[in-house]
Amino acid sequence: MNQRDINRSGGGLNGHGFFDEIISLKNLFSAWREFKRGKTNKLEIQEFVLNLENHIFQLHVELKNKTYIHSPYTAFYVNDPKPRHIHKASVRDRILHHAIFRILYPIFDKHFIHDSYSCRISKGTHCAVARLERFLARASSNNTHLIYVLKCDIRKFFDSIRHDILLEIICQHIHDESAIRLLRQIIGSFEKSPGAGLPLGNVTSQLFANIYLNELDQFMKHRLKAKHYLRYCDDFIILGDDQVTLNETIGEVGDFLRARLKLSLHSRKVIIRKSRQGIDFLGYVVLPHHRALRTKTKQRIFKKAKRGINNHSFQSFLGVLSHCSGYDLKRRLYKEAELPKTNKSRYTDDNV
User: Which residues of 23-60 are buried (b: 16+ CB within 10 A; e: fewer)?
Assistant: First the structure.
């Protein structure tokens, strides 16, 4: 969904008329078009499209009459790179998720801080890493004095999100009772434990995660006055020139997460280190004068390359390497990637 689509959706509703905007046929068909991108060769999509209009109209009628019921999820594991338990909803449920996202996103995104980078338009991992580099240069006066970096991770974040707290936050901005009823049903369609947890497979979960942790962002910026703070999903970083103060910050953040959001820091993933030692963040290691690829990321790329990769994966790996000091790694990737013969002539050392 691009910025033009966002502007055309419900960004000006301010929480009123939200339900009618979600369930409108125009929004449902737009959600379908966005949902099916890159999925048209999948059997479930091909089966759905055979009776597309009937499916969309039926969904609209059920939503309008408030008889809609969310279907059960299909669970499976993916390696990304560590095993993740994904829960996939049915096609029509996922279309509704996209329809909700289209209207909810512009209402909440304007309340997020600038330095929240996960699942937001014109943000993402590369923007987050580039922002960290600018923060480090600014805080250290271009690497002329010592800076410490506090890196934190929230323990079992998606599994621990409390439904009642999430809905309480949403209700501060959405005042449409029918919309709240629908959102309560979507949020309650999955539980990891009673009253808690969001499925990793839903597009709405990405937005709900940002809505939930915006409470932390506001605490960091307005209560703790953290000047150099950024977050990507449940990973966040704070810079400081005083290690003692950063240690105190760990306690303050932990207390806030427990009291307000019923979350806790991952004790083994709370780290304070000197910036010149290198900061491992989102697949890269940020060093004073360059950016290197994280060792585990590099190992994963070349492990896949040795097994043989297609053109799409090859281009994706080149994209990852283009954001770091990766000239030698590119040369190695060209040599080791077993591409189809029709593609090999395009990828020679001369192209690096």
Answer: bbeebbbbbbebbbeeeeeeeebeebeeeeeebbeebb
